[in-house]
Amino acid sequence: MSKPKLTPSSFIGNQEEGVISFGSGQPDLPPPKEVYQILPHYRDFKYGQVQGQFKLREALAWHYPKSSAESFVITNGASEALDLTLRVLARNGDQKPNKVLMARPYYYSYPHIAQAAGMDPIFTDLIDGRIDIEDFERKIKDCKAVIINSPSNPTGRVESVETLQRIEELTSQYRVYVLSDEVYKDLIYVRQNYLIKGPHVVTINSFSKTYAMCGFRVGYLWSLDQDLVNAVIDMKSHTSMNTNILGQEMAYEATKVPSDFIYNQLEVWKKRRDLIYDGLKTLGLDLWKPEGAFYVLPFVGNSQEFVTDMFYEYKVITYMGDWFGAPGRVRFSYALDAKRIEEGLNRVGDYLKSKKKKASPKKAEAVAA
Amino acid sequence: MSKPKLTPSSFIGNQEEGVISFGSGQPDLPPPKEVYQILPHYRDFKYGQVQGQFKLREALAWHYPKSSAESFVITNGASEALDLTLRVLARNGDQKPNKVLMARPYYYSYPHIAQAAGMDPIFTDLIDGRIDIEDFERKIKDCKAVIINSPSNPTGRVESVETLQRIEELTSQYRVYVLSDEVYKDLIYVRQNYLIKGPHVVTINSFSKTYAMCGFRVGYLWSLDQDLVNAVIDMKSHTSMNTNILGQEMAYEATKVPSDFIYNQLEVWKKRRDLIYDGLKTLGLDLWKPEGAFYVLPFVGNSQEFVTDMFYEYKVITYMGDWFGAPGRVRFSYALDAKRIEEGLNRVGDYLKSKKKKASPKKAEAVAA
Fold it and tell me: Does A215 contact B80 at a Cβ distance shorter than 8 Å?
């Protein structure tokens, strides 16, 4: 029996008994209980503002400098915020070519979303998981926009404040829009988040990771370029209208939750990070130490074989680095409890041992022949 | 003081005391109570399937011939279903030019949504509110897709079954995709809905009008072209991912509500339809009798003046026909109770009388001069 070829959607919703999933990138711990408390008496049903509910935008404005409720658009997750922004930029009449720079490895939707918007993805390869600012500068001049994702999915790396500030300067100098995807901004282990700023910046965020509200699809964008914000609202008024009114109400409740919620989550993530990083290191794999988000991206050589064998023979879900522009690597999401992470690590260890064994007799045969 | 220029967004969310709104196209009566009953104990939070929740798609499949849950994608309202479908068609490699035929007057988002997807809108002008099948045939040959909207927003007209069948034939013959926007399919006063069918048909629908769930943004598309359905899912996996999981759960509850809910609503709409149609007729306006949906589109001559004066001087919201490709006309949505409709009609009557008065002295003066 041959093993069917795997894609990310092979795994979605897999809840098979005994399977350990390092696949999907979503928190396993529930949202703050407050987001459910409004449900029993909720009775609204009419259209909301396309831009998003005023009180939610006003609550967000407290966390962003120089801004008001007008600077935000509430979207169907960060995905729609990225999609709308790129679609607007692709049509903005700017003389620049419709190219979007992005670091590689990248979040797997970035190239698709760029192309769907009518823009060409251009890649700058990370060195040791970090932006190579020289290559970045060479390529940025010719682009209309760049997507920055720090902390990064899939690398787990956080760019230095110095690099982010250099990016602010270069993009300002070359008049390039920055789409800063900061959905993991509250999951940084090494420092506070650094907010990329400037009139040419669109910050993209969501309630999915910080508040574990993935399924409710409430994201947003923030920009001080009011024309751009208005163009996004206009586009959204035709393509999806308001974001689900109840999801927005739940997100608003999340904004009122004490920040202890975030710090407590971060503690949990940090312990898991240490567990999986040390575990994979001990197994001899080469990987970067995650500084944020909840992913590791070890080098395994043949990632297709690794992912396929781990799934069919060891019941462990991992994602192929190839899907993120990182061939030879494999992405592990560590959004699962310590016990399961340990069990998963054991299975990876067993697999690696069995591969070594298989390799050794062959070597012996080859010598004998 | 000059009166500021009005756009549809001038009116959104206007709840000023004493204003009668014939503006926004959304039911005023609430959804079935069943959709709220699941809220108190709801605790899910994870990503759902991008295609939509299986049980919801399975429930929908009961109402569509030859189909299964696989034939549906649950979307952020009918808007996203249209947007995704057009974006997929614009990139499908077909040799046909990227043109979309649509009847004029049209739903105001259609031309925008076509252009945003990278397609050119082509128009066929309605005759007395109905498709001119000869003009349709001349223009359809050169198009990749056509949007059909029967019952129509803004005309309130329903195409004859004969016309719809002729459209099935012509589009099949010329290999043109049909996007049949049937969001008003349960609001027809003159007959049962006729479902346009064929392997080249994408039917678009939503829970917004039938179940008054506009704000929750749950729509869907249905097609027997599985490649097209899969391409839409792929696109959506990058641009917005799953539709809000709780909205889908509420929509699923709506599918279980006895159909009496729909018939009772229809009775209410029909009474309102008679009230506003007879009322505007009596006031001497020229309009088509609505056969479905909840709009009338009378001819008023100077629609800019009508809408502006009615709003600023008579506190009545109406929409300019120009926004729907119908200059000289004005759209009234009759999604409000009978008492308010009557009050609105009185004010329109007062306005028309005052205009006549203003016109007459001038005439007299002209004669005197």
Answer: no
Beta bridge partners of A67: none
Classified as helix, coil or strand, A204 is: strand
Nearest by CB to A49, from B12, B44, B242: name it.
B12
Report, as ranges of residue numbers, the positions in chain B whose pLDDT lies below 70: 1-2, 9, 12-15, 361-369
Closest chain A residue to the Cα of B89, Cα to Cα: A116
CB contact under 8 A, B238 and A79: yes
Give all domains of chain A, ordered by start, each with its CATH number: 8-30+260-356 (3.90.1150.10), 34-255 (3.40.640.10)
For residue B307, give the nearest of B324, B292, B284, B290 by alpha carbon. Answer: B324
Asked if B181 has any chain A CB less than 8 Å from its own CB, the reply is no
- Residue A344: C-alpha distances to residues A18, A207, A347 (Å): 10, 28, 5
Burial of B272 from C-beta contacts in 10 A (0-12 / 13-18 / 19+) = buried
For residue range A87-114, what is the model confidence (pLDDT) as tens digits? 999 999 888 999 999 999 999 999 999 9
Structure confidence by residue, pLDDT tens digits, A279-318: 999 999 999 999 999 999 999 999 999 999 999 999 999 9
CA–CA gap between residue A220 and residue A80 (Å, rounded): 8
Residue A349 CA to residue A282 CA, distance in Å, equals 9
Q: Any CB–CB contact under 8 A between A239 and chain B?
A: yes
What pTM, to 2 d.p., does this model score?
0.95
Alpha helices in chain B (DSSP H): 8-11, 34-37, 54-61, 77-90, 110-116, 133-140, 161-173, 226-239, 245-255, 260-282, 303-314, 338-368
Say if the Cβ atoms of B45 and A112 lie within 8 Å. Answer: no
Mark yes or no for CB contact A240/B48 under 8 Å.
Answer: no
Picking from B344, B325, B349, B347, the residue whose alpha carbon sits closest to that of residue B333 is: B344
How many CB atoms are closer than 10 A to CB A93?
4
- Residue B49 has its nearest CB partner, among A13, A31, A212, at A13
Tokens of A125: 């390869």
* Residue A226: count of CB within 10 angstroms of its CB: 11
- 3-state SS record for B255-291: HCCCCHHHHHHHHHHHHHHHHHHHHHHHCCCECCCCC
Which of A40, A109, A216 lies nearest to residue B238, judging by beta carbons?
A109
Task: Give the residue ranges of DSSP H helices in chain A.
Answer: 8-11, 34-37, 54-61, 77-90, 110-116, 133-140, 161-173, 226-239, 245-255, 260-282, 303-314, 338-368
Is the CB of B215 less than 8 angstroms away from the CB of A24?
no
The ipTM is: 0.94
